[in-house]
């Protein structure tokens, strides 16, 4: 570990999972299983491998089930960020949890999709790539190396790693795959309450402080019941 970079992490587990209905009528999406393991477990294993010292997990929908899952994990320490009083979206949820995440760059991982590493683990590569001129470093993937994703990409990246939003004439675009390193300073002046991280990423683009790192592996976007079958098929063949 380089200094305190990535010593803490947040797992985003508060989503409603509406596209995963009817499975999410009784089960929060992070606990939907892929090959017998809840989706959140795949992200949690990345955090364990990265030797993160503290994990914050936010809850909103069917929170008791998420809390029960957290209580079954022994290491590292898990802190619950309770959002049952409001829907805060990706940005608002992290902003509420900032006091628990410390003053150094921390990891954020989605719990409704996951990636498979090839070679050096992605979180380790994010740590090694981090520089002081970055406010946020997103893990990205070539759409050709994804399963369950039907988009054309979210960002373009220059030779130095600076990100821009995809334009209609972009020759090469990357999909954001639900993992990043971010410095708490990105949240200075952030909106109160509910807001998307896209708000802060757009401001970081203007400041040339949003960067990307191409993933060396595969991303599985498990957004619908059908996507579970696709993900399981890929994992069985991998």
Supply database-style keywords.
27% helix; three-stranded mixed β-sheet; globular; 238 residues; alpha/beta
Question: How would you describe the overall organization of this protein?
Answer:
The protein has about 240 residues and is α/β, with parallel strands linked by helices. Helix content is about 25%, strand content about 25%. The strands form 4 sheets. A 7-stranded mixed sheet has the order 5-4-1-6-12-8-13. Strands 7-14-9 form a 3-stranded mixed sheet. The chain is globular. It starts with 7 loop residues before the first strand and ends with a helix.
Indicate the percent of residues in helices.
25-40%
> Strands of the biggest beta sheet: in what spatial order?
5-4-1-6-12-8-13
Count the E strands: 14
Return the string of H and E elements.
EEEHEHEHEEHEEEEEHEEH
What's the helix and strand layout?
Blueprint: E1 8-12, E2 33-34, E3 37-38, H1 39-49, E4 54-59, H2 63-71, E5 77-82, H3 89-101, E6 106-110, E7 113-117, H4 122-129, E8 136-141, E9 146-147, E10 155-157, E11 163-165, E12 175-182, H5 197-206, E13 210-214, E14 217-221, H6 225-237
Helix pairs in contact: 3-5
């Amino acid at each position: 570990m380089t200094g305190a970079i990535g010593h803490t992490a947040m797992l985003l587990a508060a989503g409603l999972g509406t596209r995963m209905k009817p499975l999410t009528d009784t089960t929060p999406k992070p606990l939907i299983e892929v090959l017998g393991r809840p989706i959140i477990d795949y992200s949690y294993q990345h955090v364990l491998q990265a030797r993160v010292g503290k994990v914050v997990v936010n809850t909103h929908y069917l929170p008791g089930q998420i809390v029960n899952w957290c209580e079954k994990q022994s290491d590292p320490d898990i802190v619950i960020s309770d959002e049952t009083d409001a829907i805060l979206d990706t940005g608002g949820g992290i902003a509420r949890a900032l006091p628990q995440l410390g003053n150094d760059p921390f990891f954020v991982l989605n719990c409704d999709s996951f990636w498979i590493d090839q070679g050096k683990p992605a979180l380790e590569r994010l740590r090694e790539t981090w520089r002081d001129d970055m406010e946020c470093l997103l893990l990205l993937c070539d759409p050709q190396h994804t399963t369950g994703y039907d988009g054309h990409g979210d960002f373009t990246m220059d030779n130095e790693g600076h990100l821009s939003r995809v334009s209609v004439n972009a020759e090469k675009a990357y999909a954001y795959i639900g993992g990043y390193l971010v410095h708490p300073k990105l949240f200075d002046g952030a909106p109160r309450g509910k807001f998307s991280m896209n708000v802060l990423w757009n401001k970081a683009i203007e400041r040339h402080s949003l960067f990307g790192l191409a993933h060396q592996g595969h991303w599985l976007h498990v957004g619908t019941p059908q996507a579970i079958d696709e993900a399981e098929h890929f994992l069985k063949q991998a």
